[in-house]
């Protein structure tokens, strides 16, 4: 699947439209919480966290052109880093979040140093292998992680008395959860947006389009790729840590191959190399599976068919196609 | 038991595992070597072989050997036909672009898994081994069937080697692998060779799946482990190299058997998985280097 040919970056740097569009999306998501029914409210919190994960993935796939098949290890690093430190060490949510973030950063640097020696297909295989080793580790240290079964974290100590009749608000009460998920989403979105519009972002796209030429121009491509992988891994870990804290659960399922494939699917559907594609793809896929699960339990079939159809007829995804046809300024 | 018998058991287990792995990995290696694509659905072809073996062998109740022989012939044919159509319908249309085909085969993996789950169910089903004698060592009895697996796998490996190195079909395949365009110019129908290779690779996995069911029950999630082990084998053995694949399968199968007996299966998988990283650290160009996009 060839990456889209340098569209956004031809745009002038003083173009304000992308910034307004993305701030508008954040504002719309903020407003949405007052309109959504309870069920969709919870779904949306989940989608925003997963979309942050997909955005982290997209930085690597969409902008640097490196396809990883092992991102679940970074998501799980955040999940376990935050979850275990909260569960065993009694860390407060913020410190636990930071632990998750640092775990993800450290893991992505180590994996990057090794895996980035390869490229193309072997890069995919090596990341897949590392992720599988991490997944097996969560099973191997069963006594600590409780493997498949997972750990439910009790965070009820972290609550705020707002004087409401329903008692104090805890970390996992819907409004708090929604807004914290939105906060994570907004930060990931703005970080991605500023990164890809910056000089560094252009170098990353240059590497995606033609690495040899970028090296010839004097850029140390390994450093840029490592930085991109580390940021991508850290954003994924941030999403994992948030997921552990807001949904109070840590389990090895999140380290499995499936959670490496899902962000790939979301990004491909929404449009790789677009900032809002991951959100769109995650939300669409989430609801597609949710609706269809009323009629059939075969969600894997939907994932599979979606992957095959996307790669056959829709390789640029929704926003990638929109950008190509009508909105060349989309970052 | 003392160390000696333990070692013997580990060696026997490792040998059986190594032969099955060699078959599976050879299929992956063939597809990668000739077509330059990574087939992530390879493990599902293995699983399909096992599940179909359960289906076919239950058609002939009462006589395990007959049912098993039926499965050994029919399952690979069915799987081969499925793989052939998948190649025609999807992979060929993607022009065998390496990254797109990976995504497409991941899609196939999910589709096959879900269809098996829907029609076969989530339970594991056993298949009776075609023979039931046990070899009695002083310390333990060992399943004679596993030796049949070793013999059958060895025969199939030799057959594949013969097909590739001593027949006209093999020559055509190697020519395609060596230089696709020149082969095309010499009138070799490359598209048909590709479909054939993809089907052959899937059939090798399916045979391995059939051979394994009497040892390990047929289950819809059983494809993942052989897939990952085959990846490791192909990376360590070097792609498209028949000898390398077989040697690597032995190193991995035996060490897997040894470590599983002495420590735990999970640990052995972790070690095997990290072996790949080591190979790539010590050979930075990677064993996939020839195919680097």
TrEMBL record, chain A:
TM helices/strands, residue ranges: 20-39, 60-82, 94-116, 123-141, 176-196, 226-249, 261-287, 299-319
Location of this chain's protein in the cell: Cell membrane
Single GO cellular component term: plasma membrane
Topology term for the membrane: Multi-pass membrane protein
Major place of residence: membrane
InterPro entries tied to this protein: ABC_transp_permease (IPR001851), LivM-like (IPR043428)
CDD domains the record matches: TM_PBP1_LivM_like (cd06581)
Keywords: Cell membrane, Membrane, Transmembrane, Transmembrane helix
GO MF entries: branched-chain amino acid transmembrane transporter activity
Lineage: Bacteria, Pseudomonadati, Pseudomonadota, Alphaproteobacteria, Rhodospirillales
Gene source species: Hypericibacter terrae
Protein name in UniProt: Branched-chain amino acid ABC transporter permease
Keyword check for Transmembrane helix: yes
UniProt-listed PANTHER family: ABC TRANSPORTER ATP-BINDING PROTEIN, HIGH-AFFINITY BRANCHED-CHAIN AMINO ACID TRANSPORT SYSTEM PERMEASE
Keyword Transmembrane appears in the UniProt entry: yes
TrEMBL record, chain B:
Record-level Gene Ontology MF annotations: transmembrane transporter activity
Subcellular location as annotated: Cell membrane
Keyword terms of this UniProt record: Amino-acid transport, Cell membrane, Membrane, Transmembrane, Transmembrane helix, Transport
Membrane topology type: Multi-pass membrane protein
Domain of life: Bacteria
Similarity field: Belongs to the binding-protein-dependent transport system permease family. LivHM subfamily.
Protein name in the entry: Branched-chain amino acid ABC transporter permease
Membrane-spanning ranges: 6-33, 45-63, 69-90, 102-122, 142-164, 193-215, 227-254, 261-282
One GO term (biological process): amino acid transport
UniProt cross-references to PANTHER family, sorted A to Z: AMINO ACID ABC TRANSPORTER PERMEASE PROTEIN (PTHR11795:SF445), BRANCHED-CHAIN AMINO ACID TRANSPORT SYSTEM PERMEASE PROTEIN LIVH (PTHR11795)
CC annotations in GO: plasma membrane
Native organism taxonomy: Bacteria, Pseudomonadati, Pseudomonadota, Alphaproteobacteria, Rhodospirillales
